[in-house]
Design brief:
Blueprint lengths: L4 H13 L5 H26 L1 H8 L5 H15 L3 H4 L6 H11 L4 H25 L1 H13 L1 H25 L11 H8 L7 E5 L17 E2 L5 H4 L8 E5 L2
Parallel strand pairs: 1-2, 1-3
């Protein structure tokens, strides 16, 4: 921090090409740094579960899509997600704690995470290594036109800030999620209104298996396949969702 990993790795690759940095030591330190962060998040995810995921996703503009996008990747690819996670913004941070919360075996996590981290590090350091002359020319150009570059950077920062504010305001609606107390719902189910109520279990992949207990009378839908699942829900009932 605060330099993004990809930029730091490209710069490191250029440093290795110009003999300013030692290649094996640079790669070793980069891999160690990636693994230290991932192992910490994996352990925290194992013991904190969705609490940690919720904390991480609060940094996102839309927490619901943040969790769902990461869980969907695991649902589709399983542990292979760890091989490509670092290349996908958002999923890169969420993959290790998600693997921990799903009780992936530590040695299995390490095998896949080390491979994924190595692929990511080699991809970006190789980019810097191969194009170090081009990067050096750009750097010299920036130094020559430093004043102009500063103005462009400032304008870009303003545009980006405006965009983030617009996205934030657009997604405010997702922060309002209506909820019901268990006692209130239980009394409805015990009354004459029971036939107008549908309970839906929406636990996602990794938190549900065919032998899992459900509330009596509820149905199960897979949240990672919502588009198709929603077609099967009745339109003449009040639908109540529950998760973990």
């Amino acid at each position: 921090m605060p330099v993004p990993a990809a930029i730091a790795l490209v710069a490191a690759g250029a440093g290795v090409a110009s003999k300013a940095l030692n290649g094996p030591a640079t790669l070793g330190l980069a891999l160690s740094g990636a693994l230290l962060g991932d192992i910490l998040l994996f352990i925290l995810g194992r013991y904190m579960g969705w609490t940690l995921l919720a904390i991480l996703c609060r940094l996102s503009v839309n927490p619901e899509s943040c969790v769902l996008r990461s869980a969907e990747s695991f649902y589709k690819r399983g542990k292979l997600t760890l091989l490509i996670a670092k290349f996908i913004p958002g999923v890169n941070t969420m993959a290790p704690p998600l693997a921990g919360s799903m009780k992936m075996r530590p040695l299995q996590f390490l095998r896949f995470d080390i491979t994924g981290a190595a692929l990511y590090i080699l991809a970006y350091t190789s980019l810097g290594f191969l194009f170090h002359d081009f990067l050096a020319a750009i750097t010299r150009g920036f130094q020559t036109a430093g004043h102009v570059f500063g103005e462009v950077l400032f304008a870009a920062a303003l545009v980006y800030t405006g965009y983030r504010v617009w996205i934030y305001r657009k997604n405010l609606v997702y922060k309002v999620v209506p909820r019901v107390q268990v006692e209130e719902l239980a009394s409805k189910l015990a009354s004459d209104e029971a036939n107008k109520v549908l309970l839906v279990d929406v636990r996602s992949h990794g938190y549900y298996d065919p032998d899992a207990s459900r509330i009596k009378g509820s149905i199960r839908i897979e949240p990672n396949n919502l588009y198709e699942e929603l077609k099967t829900l009745p339109k003449d009932k009040d639908i109540y969702l529950y998760c973990t």
